[in-house]
């Protein structure tokens, strides 16, 4: 038996970071020591390059930044597996799904017939990462997310781009739900993040609690292992 790996995904300003931290606090209150992680992890050398790019302090080719985001996850891949096997649940703010959703959304406006970075190309470098057991997609309409303050400070925080990002998250979710092979897919659950913070937190808790209490019987799976 090992601990569960839980990922929280969503658009910018969907309340992901708040919900991740509320969940972590609740787990602690229940006496469960979980590890809180966040991608991009801006503390590593690669993370600092990503941070500089996101703040528009540096420019990088779209392929290069995509691979750096993925490398930033691979930097922590064996640590993730070790923690889970040692019995520490992981709550992770963003993961490979953001990698695909944001990168594959670039350059789709009507002026360009196809994305700059195709969906399958974007997925490739993340194939084989430790697979989460549960992905909670905090879904909110981009026009509502925009009203939640702080929007527009970083590179991707533009409503049009966020709308495309949402579409790709939805595609990822429906592909996961159509998969039949366990443990290839994480369980993908869409949570309506447009509701009051407490209501969302209660739903998140109801989905996470059984995993943390019952723990996981299977070894840590590889993400999209059917593509390996
Ligand atoms: P955050 O620190 O959660 O606000 O995320 C920073 C921004 O980077 C956010 O706009 C989402 C985007 N992002 C997160 N992960 C990836 C990734 O793997 N690839 C790309 N292209 N963008 C990402």
TrEMBL record:
State the EC number(s): 2.7.4.9
Q: Which GO terms describe its molecular function?
A: ATP binding; dTMP kinase activity; nucleoside diphosphate kinase activity
Q: Give the keywords, sorted.
A: ATP-binding, Kinase, Nucleotide biosynthesis, Nucleotide-binding, Transferase
For this entry, list what GO says about its biological process.
Answer: dTDP biosynthetic process; dTTP biosynthetic process; dUDP biosynthetic process
Q: Name one GO cellular component term.
A: cytosol
Q: Name one Pfam family in it.
A: Thymidylate_kin
UniProt record similarity statement: Belongs to the thymidylate kinase family.
What this protein is called in its record is Thymidylate kinase
What is the scientific name of the source organism?
A: Laccaria bicolor (strain S238N-H82 / ATCC MYA-4686) (Bicoloured deceiver)
């Amino acid at each position: 038996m090992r601990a569960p790996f839980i990922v929280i995904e969503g658009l910018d300003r969907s309340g992901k970071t708040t919900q991740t931290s509320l969940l972590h606090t609740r787990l602690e209150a229940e006496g469960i020591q979980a590890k809180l992680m966040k991608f991009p992890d801006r503390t590593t050398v690669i993370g600092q390059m990503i941070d500089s790019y996101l703040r528009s302090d540096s420019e990088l080719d779209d392929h290069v930044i995509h691979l750096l985001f993925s490398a930033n996850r691979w930097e922590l891949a064996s640590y993730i597996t070790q923690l889970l096997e040692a019995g520490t649940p992981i709550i992770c703010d963003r993961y490979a799904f953001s990698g695909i959703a944001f990168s594959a959304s670039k350059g789709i406006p009507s002026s360009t017939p196809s994305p700059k970075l195709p969906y399958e190309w974007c997925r490739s470098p993340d194939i084989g990462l430790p697979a989460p057991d549960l992905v909670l997609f905090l879904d909110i309409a981009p026009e509502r997310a925009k009203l939640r303050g702080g929007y527009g400070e970083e590179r991707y925080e533009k409503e049009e781009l966020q709308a495309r990002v949402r579409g790709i998250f939805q595609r990822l979710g429906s592909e996961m739900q159509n998969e039949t092979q366990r443990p290839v897919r994480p369980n993908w659950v869409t949570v309506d993040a447009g509701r009051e913070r407490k209501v969302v937190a209660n739903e998140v808790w109801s989905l996470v609690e059984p995993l943390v209490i019952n723990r996981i019987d299977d070894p840590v799976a590889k993400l999209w292992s059917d593509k390996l």
